[in-house]
Specification:
CATH architecture of the largest domain in chain A: 2-Layer Sandwich
Distance between the termini of chain B: 16 Å
CATH class of the largest domain in chain A: Alpha Beta
CATH superfamily of the largest domain in chain A: Histidine kinase-like ATPase, C-terminal domain
Helix content of chain B: 40-55%
Number of domains of chain A: 2
Number of strands of chain B: 5
Strand order of the largest sheet of chain A: 2-4-5-7-6
Low-confidence stretches of chain A: none
Oligomer: heterodimer
Number of domains of chain B: 1
CATH class of chain B: Alpha Beta
Order of helices and strands of chain B: EHEHEHEHEH
Radius of gyration of chain B: 13 Å
Structural class of chain A: alpha+beta
Shape of chain A: rod-shaped
Order of helices and strands of chain A: HHEHEEHEEHEE
Strand order of the largest sheet of chain B: 2-1-3-4-5
Structural class of chain B: alpha/beta
Largest sheet of chain A: 5 strands, mixed
Radius of gyration of chain A: 36 Å
CATH superfamily of chain B: Response regulator
Number of helices of chain A: 5
Mean pLDDT of chain A: 91
CATH topology of chain B: Rossmann fold
CATH architecture of chain B: 3-Layer(aba) Sandwich
Distance between the termini of chain A: 95 Å
């Protein structure tokens, strides 16, 4: 009987020790695998961190590149503008001079879009309020207009639009304001030019109004059939480029009402 | 102070000549157009101007800020920076050298005229 108890005890002790040894072995293996996994995880975290850094650097580089391209576009337009002015200064013929100066003012209106494009930390949109103000002031300065003789009034809502829309829009304003400055106030006639820009109630349509209280358009002038390149540009940019609508109000002076929507960006590459 | 003598330092020849014509129309004299910092230093010695219009980005080893420093170390000539770079780093660097004005390109003739007159006036009344 005693022998049996001793045998059972021995078997029991052997089983316990075996169990303990097995547990230790299993625990060690588990610990080892845990260590391996945690190493893997650390490695992956490091890898992801580096990938994120690479992505951030690449994004930064791309933004820098984009700024550099806008800068170069602006710089090249400035060179074209300077070139036209050099040529204009050499001309004695006032008609030729006027053609060169008109071309220069059109280039400047386009260059100004690029300036306003990358200034306020937004590389895709043009802020209209500063753009329109500066565009109009530049025209007043280049035609030597005393602001006390012709008053400029602008009422522009804080709207930003993409460059595809802003460029034709700027050229339209350039032509209409130029027309008013050149023809609406002959002699020393006093008056005002108004530029309004707003978003309509539908939330998507935009409306530009350029008006003056000058002598008005000649009664027999058909805006769509006129010979002046300025008005041809206005009609075509509104109807073909912006797919918008042009309305001419003849009353006291003249008002051009342009209604359009922002052009969608067409991928070219 | 009319007929003041001005040196134009600008590496775009077309823009430099446009500025030169504007200066002449505004009744200033242009001593020369220099397209690099080294060229500018030589022109200053040849015919010392009353004022220098300095583009910040230039051809050659020296930029406009370094060139202005070198000119100011030798002679008491006011320098107005001209630049299309709205780079804050360059603007800050330019402010550290003693400068008499800063014009962001493209600028109007009127702005050019005012900046030059103010710089010449400041120099006279220091």
């Amino acid at each position: 009987m005693n022998m049996l108890i001793i045998l059972l005890l021995v078997v029991f002790i052997v089983l316990i020790f075996g169990g303990i040894l097995l547990s230790i072995e299993v625990a060690m293996r588990l610990g080892h695998r845990l260590l391996e996994k945690s190493h893997d995880l650390e490695h992956e975290i490091g890898e992801r961190h580096r990938a994120q850094l690479r992505a951030e650097t690449s994004l930064g580089e791309k933004e820098l590149l984009l700024r550099e391209i806008h800068h170069r576009v602006k710089n090249n337009m400035q060179i074209v503008s300077s070139l036209l002015r050099l040529q204009s200064r050499q001309q004695d013929d006032p008609v030729t001079k006027a053609i060169l100066d008109d071309s220069r003012s059109r280039i400047s209106a386009m260059a100004l879009v690029h300036e306003n494009l990358y200034q306020p930390d937004n590389l895709a949109k043009v802020s209209l309020r500063p753009y329109i103000q500066e565009l109009a002031m530049n025209l007043f300065a280049s035609y030597n207009i005393e602001p006390s003789r012709i008053v400029l009034i602008t009422d522009v809502e804080p709207i930003s639009i993409n460059i595809e829309t802003a460029t034709p829009c700027g050229l339209i304003i350039n032509e209409l304001v130029t027309n008013s400055l050149k023809y609406a106030f002959p002699g020393d006639r006093l008056g005002e030019i108004r530029i309004d820009f707003k978003r309509l109630a539908d939330g998507v349509s935009l409306q530009l109004r350029v008006a003056d209280n000058g002598v008005g358009l000649p009664a027999d002038l058909d805006v769509r059939r006129g010979k002046s390149l300025g008005l041809q540009l206005v009609v075509n940019l509104v109807e073909n480029q912006l797919q918008g609508e042009l309305l001419v109000e003849r009353g006291q002076g003249v008002a051009f009402l342009v209604t359009f929507k922002e052009i969608g960006y067409e991928k070219r590459i | 102070m009319s007929r003041a003598k001005i040196l134009v330092v600008e590496d775009e020849w077309i823009i430099a000549n446009d500025i030169k014509d504007s200066l002449i129309e505004l009744d200033y004299r242009v001593t020369a157009i220099a397209s690099s910092g080294e060229d500018a230093l030589a022109r200053v010695e040849e015919d010392p101007p009353d004022l220098v219009l300095m583009d910040i980005v230039l051809k050659g080893a020296m930029n406009g800020i370094e060139t202005a420093r070198a000119i100011r170390a030798r002679r008491d000539i006011p320098v107005i920076y001209l630049t299309a770079y709205d780079n804050q780093f360059l603007v800050d660097q330019a402010k550290q050298t003693e400068n008499f004005g800063y014009l962001l390109k493209p600028f109007k003739d009127r702005e050019l005229h005012i900046a030059i007159d103010m710089a010449l006036h400041r120099k006279q009344h220091r």
